[in-house]
Amino acid sequence: MNDSRLAQRYHQGRAWLRRTQPGAMAVRTSVYVTGFLAVVTAAAPAIGAARAAGFALVLPILPTVRPMKVWPTALIVTCVAVWALTGEHSYALAFLLGALLYTHHTSAAQAVTMRTDTYVTPEVVTGWARRTGLVLLAAAAASALVGLLPRLFGRTDAIAYGLAGLAAVVGLGGVLAWLVFRKL
Predict the structure, then answer these.
(1) Distances in Å between the alpha carbon of 72 and those of 61, 87, 106?
(2) For this UniProt entry, which segments traverse the membrane (predicted)?
(3) pTM for the whole thing?
(4) Is the torsion defined by CA of 145, 169, 89, 150 positive or negative?
(5) Could you state, in order of their start, the residue ranges of all structural domains in the chain?
(6) What is the pLDDT along the chain (184 residues), one digit of tens a residue?
(7) For residue 28, how many other CB atoms are within 10 A of its CB?
(8) Of 37, 33, 25, 17, which Cα lies nearest the Cα of 125?
């Protein structure tokens, strides 16, 4: 690259940086932070927290820069695959990873709808945060219920627990449909 093209790219980058808006950049930052935390949460039991953090610094960059492409889904699939292969399957870790991946996915979907120079009103961000909080609260309740079933009923048939989990998923789907219908 010659000096004039390099100077042109530099000035284009500075002009872009001056046009960015805090709300849109906060949404992009949430894509990166939740992606980082999800990778650390999924990989730390297998390879250690320090190695997972190094891996997690790089992996969420593409979903942050290009949220409309396949990158957010690739990060989610990678996290779930790493978590599934580690053997660390506690309810708390599963819920934490699910919450982080859900928040990553919804913030990436929010980032798709706005450019980095878009003015975002506080109502948009608070509405998104409220909706995400309600979904995570419903998921926490369903997860706690499913986690308490063996303590309540003892060690019975695995099919009964599978059916209870299926009922929890259907119930959570009903809550999500209700939230969409109410347009929270």
Answers:
(1) 10, 24, 10
(2) 31-58, 70-86, 133-153, 159-181
(3) 0.74
(4) positive
(5) 3-182
(6) 567 888 888 888 788 777 778 878 888 889 999 999 999 888 887 777 777 788 788 888 888 888 888 899 999 998 888 888 876 777 788 888 889 999 999 999 988 888 877 788 888 888 888 988 988 888 888 777 777 777 776 666 666 667 777 787 788 788 778 877 776 5
(7) 20
(8) 25
